């Protein structure tokens, strides 16, 4: 579904990510883990067209995404839930959801209201808040809305950047419960996560990044049990306390 | 002295509406791109001059939509040449770039229409109508009505169409707007087109009461800018209120104190307002989390 | 040293202009260049250093011109008195202007300055009793020391003033005052947190900028010998801005080069033959550059627009007999080109080409300073009693009481939105509590400004990093040392012995602080170029520079790798060992558990638990609110 070949990119002259190769199959949940500064966010930004690759290419369902700006990538069926959520804060929850479907070509009434019903069913809280300004939602609600907005695009592939960022443990668990549900429905997803064992718990396949390169790869279950990955990347996350 | 107050207010409101319309144009681009066209006065003057040349061919009413379309095209060029190349630079290059574009536009129009101010024929008879103790010229009604109509139309577009919401989304979060499929470059171009269209329209609306010339826009644009800042650059309502405040202050001062000082009270109100409320009367504080 | 030689050579050349100028016209042109250069040096304090675009300096320039002119004509004041008065009066107006401008930025700031200048223009025009109004004021050059000033003599006067201003502005920029101006551009909140009043810094910047511009205005009055209010208008501001942007900001050479361009360009455009050559050259250059970048596949068709315009201008140049009518168009196009292609200005662009890479190797570690950092200080306890903070109807903190002991690390945890950052922001004066009392030692800080609280010995780091990104790493720490100086503004302007001594000591101290957090090798890099984790360490070094008794750390480990966290913990342990009071907000529980002596837990703005790490983590309320997710996630 999503194929990344020899991808390099960066800001200015220096590349931040080097020669990445990744494959995401239909219905798979792939996670990309690694410490801060490893290049995870840069990888996602390059995939969704916010950054131009300096080398290599990204294929989405056979379409070459190279050089396409983010709004074109979005129209081809890739939805990106950005780091820090980036909601349209002055707009209502409903407007945020409607704009989530902006790029869709099947913007007929029936299809849209079907999807709207679906996301409001997954996130019942948003139904209560639908006319509230998105900027006034709490952190957890904002993350839910960001995911819901991406779902409105009915994407072929959804990429999520640090869905746990800045959330208290309780809310992180709620967000990951949603992600697990979406995976069970057979959606194709890529998750970037700093708290590796969170992501490894829900993912099918995992890539480990360090210094802009992929250093490990394998089925999530296998990496989860791997001592060296545990030591290097699973430290210091708040759920490990008890 | 007080018996002429309604009359003074009428002229203040007329002026104020025009300032408000110009301010509205600044607000349109500011929300999408955090930039404004500092050459807005030239857009206004060029709009009025094109209107002047078209009126003999099309008549005043048919000329209006053509000038609005022309203003839109002008805005697209301003955005493409002066704003887009400087948008992502950390310095405020766009301030100077738009001023520079205005300099070129003014000079070119001087070479086409000459430097002298020209009279602009009024489409309505110069027969004053009495409203509430004040005599109002039909042209003044046209100015107020036309300006309000245009602003309401743009406001409705922004609030109730998906494209309008896309404008607002771009204003809130440019990158995220791209991620949901909004072509943010086009949105910003579009906001400049709308902005210069309002300026051009303001130009043909005021032209019958002022004179028409390449230099006519500078003072109007500066006052429109004061109005926009006073009201708060993020608010359409602020633009209108700011315009009215400055227009009325100007009319009152001109009549009761001195025409020479007519601009001072409005500017003092502006300075006082910004001392107390740096984001303008209706402006939104873009809070930064620390 | 090469820079000094270049400066001396250029100044020698400028001093000899009266000998070199072929006639009075060119001598006058050179005089105006230097007058403009002085004005631009003043304007650059606001634009280049504080980082705001002022559209109002024509008003200050006019005030200077009229002050000097009127004093000389009506009161017979000597030249020096008239010029000093021009600077002083203008500085006074600058201070007044600073107030509405204090909290405004970008277009708002531009409008404030423009509104001020517009009022000045109206008053000059209307107050005919004083200014002669629109008729204008004739200002003959006053005698200097009894001798009449000819054009050459006056040029030398202007040159001397220019050289003086050049030196003073250079010293200012390199001093702690200059650093505080630049810090305004980075983050006023951070500047205040270091005990430096952003208000005072901005007012000072305005006064100095206005004084220099006012002196330039005075020189202008004597140079032109006739001034009218209309001469000081919006167009003059545009010329000033053009000159500074084309020349280059935050650089004295930029002001000089900009003045040359602004004064000489109109003359150059008068010569059609010269213009044809330039237009063709420009068209060829731009065509070539565009062809190259298009060949590399970086742009679409729209990349050809500038080239097309340049070619059109070149073709037009050969159609026209004279450029007089089109001069402004060419001027505007040049300006557009300069902004697009030379965003750093002529000088900035040249400097970037020639400047050697910043020296990244550090000198030998000053051991004396490193020892000083670990030197014991007396910490101060912080007492919080019944503090409530409201935002509109929302209660961000309600009735929170706690005491943070000296030489301890006090943890503050809780779910997001529990009020942890509100706590720190209230303690540092960014928010004012609506009820309750906070004491640092015995001093209540309710209602005090962030800078006042910082001066009581409270320093902090920020959850969203607030570095002065465009300043170097060591300069960031030096801003933290702002209050360590005893020398004053005059010392800094003339670089007195006392000032140089202090500057050297403080640089050593800053270097030691960098060594303490492990950043000694990065001293001369731009702060924004540091990796994320190191930026957090730099914030700690900068906070420590203020020699705080209380240090508040808002999520210092956010975004750090486990290995960085170990280093951070080692640093914090050493800070605590010195006797300081530490407050730590953190989500990384293992770090909180390892470091904290006591922990306070907040939930929905209320304190729900407090005690030793073990007590807190076994408290059922805490488990429910904060740690309960463990089961849910498992």
TrEMBL record, chain A:
<comment type="similarity">
    <text>Belongs to the ABC transporter superfamily.</text>
</comment>
<keyword id="KW-0547">Nucleotide-binding</keyword>
<dbReference type="InterPro" id="IPR052156">
    <property type="entry name" value="BCAA_Transport_ATP-bd_LivF"/>
</dbReference>
<dbReference type="GO" id="GO:0015807">
    <property type="term" value="P:L-amino acid transport"/>
</dbReference>
<dbReference type="InterPro" id="IPR017871">
    <property type="entry name" value="ABC_transporter-like_CS"/>
</dbReference>
<dbReference type="InterPro" id="IPR003439">
    <property type="entry name" value="ABC_transporter-like_ATP-bd"/>
</dbReference>
<dbReference type="GO" id="GO:0016887">
    <property type="term" value="F:ATP hydrolysis activity"/>
</dbReference>
<keyword id="KW-0029">Amino-acid transport</keyword>
<protein>
    <submittedName>
        <fullName>Amino acid/amide ABC transporter ATP-binding protein 2 (HAAT family)</fullName>
    </submittedName>
</protein>
<keyword id="KW-0067">ATP-binding</keyword>
<dbReference type="Pfam" id="PF00005">
    <property type="entry name" value="ABC_tran"/>
</dbReference>
<dbReference type="GO" id="GO:0015658">
    <property type="term" value="F:branched-chain amino acid transmembrane transporter activity"/>
</dbReference>
<dbReference type="InterPro" id="IPR027417">
    <property type="entry name" value="P-loop_NTPase"/>
</dbReference>
<dbReference type="GO" id="GO:0005524">
    <property type="term" value="F:ATP binding"/>
</dbReference>
<dbReference type="InterPro" id="IPR003593">
    <property type="entry name" value="AAA+_ATPase"/>
</dbReference>
UniProtKB/TrEMBL annotation, chain B:
<feature type="transmembrane region" description="Helical">
    <location>
        <begin position="6"/>
        <end position="24"/>
    </location>
</feature>
<comment type="similarity">
    <text>Belongs to the binding-protein-dependent transport system permease family. LivHM subfamily.</text>
</comment>
<dbReference type="GO" id="GO:0005886">
    <property type="term" value="C:plasma membrane"/>
</dbReference>
<feature type="transmembrane region" description="Helical">
    <location>
        <begin position="187"/>
        <end position="209"/>
    </location>
</feature>
<dbReference type="InterPro" id="IPR052157">
    <property type="entry name" value="BCAA_transport_permease"/>
</dbReference>
<keyword id="KW-0812">Transmembrane</keyword>
<dbReference type="GO" id="GO:0022857">
    <property type="term" value="F:transmembrane transporter activity"/>
</dbReference>
<feature type="transmembrane region" description="Helical">
    <location>
        <begin position="264"/>
        <end position="287"/>
    </location>
</feature>
<keyword id="KW-0472">Membrane</keyword>
<feature type="transmembrane region" description="Helical">
    <location>
        <begin position="134"/>
        <end position="157"/>
    </location>
</feature>
<dbReference type="InterPro" id="IPR001851">
    <property type="entry name" value="ABC_transp_permease"/>
</dbReference>
<keyword id="KW-1003">Cell membrane</keyword>
<protein>
    <submittedName>
        <fullName>Amino acid/amide ABC transporter membrane protein 1 (HAAT family)</fullName>
    </submittedName>
</protein>
<dbReference type="GO" id="GO:0006865">
    <property type="term" value="P:amino acid transport"/>
</dbReference>
<keyword id="KW-0813">Transport</keyword>
UniProtKB/TrEMBL annotation, chain C:
<dbReference type="InterPro" id="IPR001851">
    <property type="entry name" value="ABC_transp_permease"/>
</dbReference>
<dbReference type="Pfam" id="PF00005">
    <property type="entry name" value="ABC_tran"/>
</dbReference>
<feature type="transmembrane region" description="Helical">
    <location>
        <begin position="330"/>
        <end position="354"/>
    </location>
</feature>
<feature type="transmembrane region" description="Helical">
    <location>
        <begin position="79"/>
        <end position="99"/>
    </location>
</feature>
<dbReference type="GO" id="GO:0015192">
    <property type="term" value="F:L-phenylalanine transmembrane transporter activity"/>
</dbReference>
<feature type="transmembrane region" description="Helical">
    <location>
        <begin position="238"/>
        <end position="265"/>
    </location>
</feature>
<keyword id="KW-1133">Transmembrane helix</keyword>
<keyword id="KW-0547">Nucleotide-binding</keyword>
<protein>
    <submittedName>
        <fullName>Amino acid/amide ABC transporter membrane protein 2 (HAAT family) /amino acid/amide ABC transporter ATP-binding protein 1 (HAAT family)</fullName>
    </submittedName>
</protein>
<keyword id="KW-0472">Membrane</keyword>
<dbReference type="GO" id="GO:0042941">
    <property type="term" value="P:D-alanine transmembrane transport"/>
</dbReference>
<dbReference type="GO" id="GO:1903806">
    <property type="term" value="P:L-isoleucine import across plasma membrane"/>
</dbReference>
<keyword id="KW-0813">Transport</keyword>
<dbReference type="InterPro" id="IPR043428">
    <property type="entry name" value="LivM-like"/>
</dbReference>
<feature type="transmembrane region" description="Helical">
    <location>
        <begin position="25"/>
        <end position="43"/>
    </location>
</feature>
């Amino acid at each position: 579904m999503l194929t990344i070949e020899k991808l390099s990119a960066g800001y200015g002259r220096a590349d931040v990510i080097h020669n990445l190769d990744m494959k995401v199959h239909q219905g798979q949940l792939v996670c990309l883990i690694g410490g801060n500064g490893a290049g995870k966010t840069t990888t996602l930004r390059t995939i969704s067209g916010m950054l131009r690759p300096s080398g290599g290419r990204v294929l989405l369902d056979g379409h070459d995404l190279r050089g396409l700006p983010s709004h074109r990538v979005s129209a081809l069926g890739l939805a990106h839930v950005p780091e820090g959520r980036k909601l349209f804060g002055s707009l209502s929850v409903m407007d945020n959801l409607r704009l989530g479907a902006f790029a869709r070509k099947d913007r007929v009434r029936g299809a849209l209201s079907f999807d709207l019903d679906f996301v409001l069913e997954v996130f019942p809280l948003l139904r209560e808040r639908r006319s509230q300004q998105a900027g006034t939602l709490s952190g957890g609600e904002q993350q839910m809305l960001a995911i819901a907005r991406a779902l409105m695009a009915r994407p072929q592939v959804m990429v999520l950047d640090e869905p746990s960022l800045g959330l208290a443990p309780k809310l992180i668990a709620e967000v990951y419960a949603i992600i697990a549900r979406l995976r069970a429905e057979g959606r194709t997803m890529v998750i970037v996560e700093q708290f590796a064992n969170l992501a490894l718990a829900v993912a099918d396949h995992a890539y480990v990044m360090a210094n802009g390169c992929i250093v490990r790869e394998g089925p999530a279950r296998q990496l989860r049990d791997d001592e060296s990955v545990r030591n290097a990347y699973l430290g210091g996350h708040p759920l490990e306390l008890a | 002295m007080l018996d002429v107050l309604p009359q003074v207010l009428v002229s203040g409101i007329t002026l104020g509406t025009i300032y408000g319309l110009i301010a509205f144009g600044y607000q349109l681009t500011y929300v999408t791109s955090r930039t404004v066209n500092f050459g807005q006065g030239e857009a206004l003057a060029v709009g009025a001059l094109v209107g002047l040349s078209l009126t003999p061919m099309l008549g005043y009413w048919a000329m209006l939509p053509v000038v609005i379309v022309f203003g839109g095209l002008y805005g697209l060029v301003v955005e493409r040449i002066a704003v887009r190349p400087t948008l992502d630079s950390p310095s405020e290059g766009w301030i100077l770039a738009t001023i520079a574009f205005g300099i070129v536009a003014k000079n070119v129009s001087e070479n086409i229409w000459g430097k002298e101010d020209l009279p602009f024929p009024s489409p309505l008879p110069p027969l004053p109508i009495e409203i509430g103790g004040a005599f109002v010229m039909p042209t003044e009604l046209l100015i107020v009505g036309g300006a309000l109509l245009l602003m309401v139309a743009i406001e409705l577009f922004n609030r109730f169409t998906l494209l309008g919401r896309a404008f607002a989304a771009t204003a809130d979060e440019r990158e995220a707007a791209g991620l949901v499929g909004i072509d943010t470059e086009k949105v910003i171009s579009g906001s400049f087109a709308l902005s210069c269209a309002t300026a051009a329209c303001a130009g043909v609306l005021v032209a019958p009461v002022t004179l028409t010339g390449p230099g006519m826009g500078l003072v109007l644009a500066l006052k429109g800018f004061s109005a926009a800042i006073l009201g708060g650059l993020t608010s359409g309502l602020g633009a209108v209120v700011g315009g009215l405040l400055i227009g009325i202050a100007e009319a009152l001062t001109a009549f009761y104190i001195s025409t020479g000082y007519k601009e001072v009270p409005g500017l003092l109100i502006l300075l006082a307002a910004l001392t107390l409320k740096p984001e303008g009367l209706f402006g939104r504080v873009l809070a930064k989390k620390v | 040293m090469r820079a000094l030689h270049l400066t001396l050579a250029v100044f020698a050349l400028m001093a000899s202009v009266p000998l070199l100028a072929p006639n009075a016209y060119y001598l006058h042109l050179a005089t105006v260049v230097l007058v403009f250069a002085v004005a631009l040096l003043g304007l650059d304090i606001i634009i280049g250093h504080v980082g705001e675009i002022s559209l109002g300096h024509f008003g200050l320039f006019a005030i200077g011109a009229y002050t000097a002119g009127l004093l000389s004509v009506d009161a017979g004041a000597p030249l020096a008195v008239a010029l000093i008065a021009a600077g002083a009066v203008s500085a006074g107006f600058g201070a007044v202007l600073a107030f509405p401008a204090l909290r405004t930025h970008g277009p708002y700031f531009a409008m404030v300055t423009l509104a001020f200048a517009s009022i000045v223009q109206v008053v000059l025009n209307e107050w005919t009793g004083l200014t002669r109004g629109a008729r204008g004021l004739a200002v003959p050059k006053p005698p200097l020391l009894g001798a009449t000033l000819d054009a050459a003599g006056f040029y030398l006067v202007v040159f001397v003033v220019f050289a003086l201003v050049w030196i003073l502005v250079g010293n200012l920029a390199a001093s702690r005052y200059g650093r505080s101006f630049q810090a305004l551009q980075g983050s006023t909140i951070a500047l205040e947190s270091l005990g430096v009043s952003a208000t005072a810094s901005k007012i000072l910047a305005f006064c100095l900028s206005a004084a220099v511009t006012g002196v330039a205005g005075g020189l202008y009055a004597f140079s032109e010998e006739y001034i009218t209010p209309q001469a000081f208008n919006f167009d003059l501001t545009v010329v000033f801005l053009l000159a500074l942007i084309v020349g280059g900001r935050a650089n004295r050479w930029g002001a000089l080069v900009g003045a040359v361009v602004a004064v000489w360009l109109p003359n150059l455009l008068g010569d059609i033959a010269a213009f044809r050559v330039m237009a063709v050259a420009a068209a060829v250059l731009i065509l070539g550059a565009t062809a190259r970048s298009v060949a590399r596949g970086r742009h679409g068709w729209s990349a050809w627009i500038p080239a097309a315009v340049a070619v059109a201008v070149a073709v037009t140049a050969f159609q026209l007999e004279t450029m007089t009518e089109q001069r402004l168009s060419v001027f505007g196009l040049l300006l557009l080109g300069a902004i697009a292609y030379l965003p750093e200005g002529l000088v900035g662009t040249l400097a970037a080409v020639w400047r050697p890479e910043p020296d990244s190797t550090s000198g030998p570690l000053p051991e004396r300073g490193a020892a000083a950092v670990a030197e014991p200080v007396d910490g101060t306890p912080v007492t919080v009693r019944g503090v409530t903070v409201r935002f509109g109807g929302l209660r961000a903190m309600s009735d929170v009481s706690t005491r943070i002991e000296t030489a301890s690390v006090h943890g503050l945890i809780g779910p997001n939105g529990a009020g942890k950052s509100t706590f720190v922001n209230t303690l540092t004066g960014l928010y004012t509590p609506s009820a309750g009392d906070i004491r640092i030692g015995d001093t209540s800080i309710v209602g005090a400004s962030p800078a006042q609280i910082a001066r009581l010995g409270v320093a902090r780091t920020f959850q969203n990093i607030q570095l002065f990104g465009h300043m170097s790493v060591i300069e960031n720490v030096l801003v933290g040392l702002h209050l360590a100086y005893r020398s004053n503004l005059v010392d800094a302007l003339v670089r007195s012995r006392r000032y140089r001594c202090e500057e050297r000591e403080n640089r050593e101290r800053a270097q030691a602080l960098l060594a303490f957090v492990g950043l000694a090798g990065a001293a001369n890099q731009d702060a924004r170029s540091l990796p994320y984790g190191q930026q957090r360490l730099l914030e700690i070094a900068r906070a420590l520079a203020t020699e705080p008794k209380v240090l508040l750390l808002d999520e210092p480990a956010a975004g750090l790798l486990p290995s960085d966290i170990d280093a951070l913990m080692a640093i914090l342990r050493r800070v605590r060992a010195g006797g300081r009071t530490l407050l730590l907000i953190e989500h990384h529980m293992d770090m909180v558990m390892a470091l904290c002596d006591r922990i306070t837990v907040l939930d929905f703005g209320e304190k729900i638990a407090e005690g030793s790490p073990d007590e807190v983590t076994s408290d059922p309320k805490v488990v429910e609110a904060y740690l309960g997710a463990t089961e849910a996630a498992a």
